[in-house]
Amino acid sequence: MTVATLRRPALFVLVAASAFVSFAWAQNDTLGHQDTPILPGTEWHVHDGLRPQPPVIAPAAWDGKPVPAPSDATVLFDGKSLDNWRMKGDKPGAWKIEDGAMVANRTGDIQTKQEFGDCQLHVEWASPAKVESASQGRGNSGVFLHGRYEIQVLDSYENPTYPDGQAGAVYGQHPPLANASRKPGEWQTYDIFFTAPRFEGDTLKEPAYVTVLHNGVLVQNHTPIAGGTAHMALAKYGDAKATGPFRLQDHGNPTRFRNIWVRPLASAPTP
Ligand code: MG
Fold first, then answer.
1. Is 216 strand, coil or helix?
2. In the predicted model, what is the mean pLDDT of residues 146-163?
3. What is the mean pLDDT of the chain?
4. What is the whole-number distance in angstroms between the Cα of residue 154 and the centre of ligand 1?
5. For residues 53 and 50, what is the distance between their CA atoms, to the nearest angstrom?
């Protein structure tokens, strides 16, 4: 037996092993999940890390000053008081107020006392300036419309994660059309245009729709919402409610919020 024939099996093993490694690499979803249900109408799993990443774009320059509310808006947070907010179980708002912002402080989610139907909502938020952790662990929070449909808040500045979980996503359903994130610590804006779901009795007649501008960039365009936000599962609608509060998520990261105002919109007439 020559040295060459001795080497051949070793070479085969090497080639086979490298092919397996490449295959495994191509299938390796380190950013998300492949063991979750397929989102209806798509080829992607819920939180699929292999789903195409939205293009990264730089939003327009901004001086970072709060965007003034129009005359008919209801100011929900003016930087001074949590009077319009409450915790679970009807407890008073417990987030910290610091330098005109309310800050998630591991006391749980906070939500408005008032409920809304169709509306325009303006929210300013900032991820922690000090970068800690990565992916979903970095500046995670969220704006829940009707207390149940989450527009994800995340530090998505040079922070890869699964696309349906990055800033501006309808969490677990629709990635944003673009990643328009500013740097951690910088103020960012969400302008959210929400059409509440329509029910007939207990039956869903029309899903909710949402349009979102992130730092002035369109990231959701009249996107149908498949139901209440779920983690690693398909969303579904729960009880038939025409209105609900806004809820801000305390995901354990000290995300800041300020200058939150809403313009309730006249609901479409019921046929
Ligand atoms: Mg979140």
1. coil
2. 97
3. 91
4. 7
5. 8
Please say whether the beta carbons of 233 and 99 come within 8 A.
Answer: no
Cα 251 to averaged position of ligand 1 atoms, centre (Å): 7
Opening angle at CA 180, ends 187 and 82, nearest 5? 35
Q: What is the tens place of the pLDDT at every residue in 217-266?
A: 999 999 999 999 999 999 999 989 999 999 999 999 999 999 999 999 98
Name the nearest CA neighbour of 181 among 169, 173, 196: 169
Angstrom distance (rounded) from CA 99 to CA 86: 20
Strand partners, 200: 203
Q: Within 13 Å of residue 106, how many CA atoms lie on the same side as its CB?
A: 2
CA of 102 to the centre of ligand 1 (A): 16
Pick the CATH number of 8-264 from 2.60.120.560, 2.40.30.10, 3.30.450.20, 3.40.630.30: 2.60.120.560
For residue 173, which of 202, 127, 208, 218 has the smallest C-alpha distance? Answer: 208
How far is ligand 1, taken at its centre, from the CA of residue 175, in Å?
Answer: 13
Q: Determine the distance separating the centroid of ligand 1 and the alpha carbon of 165, expressed in angstroms.
A: 8
136 alpha carbon to ligand 1 midpoint, in Å? 8
Distance between CA atoms of 189 and 212, rounded to whole angstroms? 10
Quote the ligand 1 centre to 230 CA distance (angstroms).
Answer: 11
**Which pair of structure tokens corresponds to residue 139?**
């500046």
Give residue 64's pLDDT band: very low, low, confident or very high (50, 70, 90): very high
CA of 70 to the centre of ligand 1 (A): 28
Record the tokens describing residue 195, joined without a space.
């059409």
